[in-house]
Amino acid sequence: MEIIIQPSHYQLAAIASEIIRDALLRKPNLVLGLATGSTPIALYKALVRMHKENGLDFSRVTTFNLDEYVDIPREHPQSYHTFMAKHFFDHVNISVENQHIPQNTAENHEAFCTAFEEAIVRAGGIDIQVLGIGTDGHIGFNEVGSSLASRTRIVTLTENTLAANAIHFGDDISAVPEMAITIGIGTIMEAKQCLLLANSASKSEAIAKAVEGPITSMVPASILQTHPNTVVLIDESAASDLKEVEYYKRSYANKLKLQSQ
Ligand code: F6R
Questions:
Q1: Residue nearest atom 4 of ligand 1, based on CA coordinates
Q2: Atom of ligand 1 nearest to the CA of 67
């Protein structure tokens, strides 16, 4: 894991967008794994700016979203279909047929999940997987206790996730859909690179457990310790429970020094 600590989430978004831009310039048919939630919004803004101001071309990009609520209309303001259109897809030139978001119904979900996994393989696998992290360490909607080898499937959300997401449903926990379809942890681990973003003190405990704690299904993000190419991008508040902050900062400073030589 490479740990990059920055003063604010704007710098995190800038670094993550530069990683994606550089990969896209090297490989125009890049396959991106995308997340929703408040964390990646600044990243999407930065990528949209690169598209509008510098002509960054997404025309051959394929995307796979991590998750979607089940039993919520696609047009619902809080569906992840709506989120992605609003924050990213409506502002860049990714063709609609290359955008993949898990379905929003429980109908034939087993066949859907198998087809979703097959589509990822057909696209050549995910090159860069963008991830946020729940306060309990979940990634995608792989809740605590998820098999670390899990694949795309339908899941029931924990009370913790329902409570955290109630803010988007008028603070009414009963309005948050209880089930979702999520890419599995095994699926995420097959991405060539993972970018895990987190900001604010509410994520500090989850980040400390994911980065420095034991690998356990009770902290799903902890499996990323075994991923060969994961970059953890966090602000000072999210880093505040890490033991080795100074070492991570020194390592990153040395990397920048080497790059500028
Ligand atoms: C959403 C997702 C979730 C979120 C996590 C953090 O697609 O994969 O794992 O990344 O719940 O959400 P925020 O960013 O809203 O704190």
A1: 132
A2: 7
The CA–CA distances, whole Å, from 253 to 112, 225, 242, 260 equal 45, 21, 18, 11
Evaluate whether residue 250 is within a structural domain: no
Which of 138, 144, 203 to mutate for ligand 1's pocket (most ligand atoms within 8 Å of CB)?
A: 138
Asked, for residue 223, whether it belongs to a domain, the answer is no
| Helix 41-54 and helix 80-87, axial crossing angle in degrees, nearest 10 | 40
What per-residue confidence (pLDDT) applies to 52? 98
In this prediction the pTM is 0.97
Q: Which of 9, 32, 39 to mutate to test the pocket of ligand 1 (most atoms within 8 A of CB)?
A: 39
Q: What is the CATH number of the domain that holds 161?
A: 3.40.50.1360
Whether residue 70 contacts residue 153, with contact meaning beta carbons closer than 8 Å, is answered with no
Look at residue 63 in the predicted model and tell me its pLDDT.
98
Compute mean pLDDT per 10 residues along the chain, 261 residues long, and list them.
Answer: 96 98 98 97 98 98 98 95 98 98 95 98 98 97 98 96 93 95 98 98 98 98 98 98 98 96 88
Number of domains in the chain: 1
Catalytic residue numbers read 67, 136, 138, 143
Q: Which atom of ligand 1 is nearest to the CA of 182?
A: 8
Closest CA to 71 of 102, 95, 106, 46: 106
Tell the residue nearest (CA) to atom 10 of ligand 1.
132
